[in-house]
Amino acid sequence: MGRSPHQYVVERRLADAKRRLSQSDKPLAVIAHVSGFSSKNHMTDTFKKILDVTPGVVRKNSNQSKTARVGDDFYQDLAHGGDQRVVWFVLVVFGA
């Protein structure tokens, strides 16, 4: 095994957040919540602690940065496993 269940979950969250950061310009808070972090600050602290880099640097260094779009792809993400906390967050922040 070699790693705890918690370490596995954190690694999955980081991988998901890195993918999202490289593929979109969505706000960091949205990426943090959709990726399973409790807040933008929690995601940033985890990136610094484990990867020794901030989410902003990951985004800046990405060659695939796209125009921000909180649209169909985002809501499809929610439909395929998003929880009530994320749905609430989107409704409050984006007034959907």
Automatic annotation (TrEMBL):
One of its GO terms (molecular function) is DNA-binding transcription factor activity. Residues 1-61 form the HTH araC/xylS-type domain. The keyword Nucleotide-binding does not apply. Keywords: DNA-binding, Transcription, Transcription regulation. Coiled coil: none annotated. PANTHER family: HTH-TYPE TRANSCRIPTIONAL ACTIVATOR RHAS-RELATED. This is HTH-type transcriptional regulator-like protein.
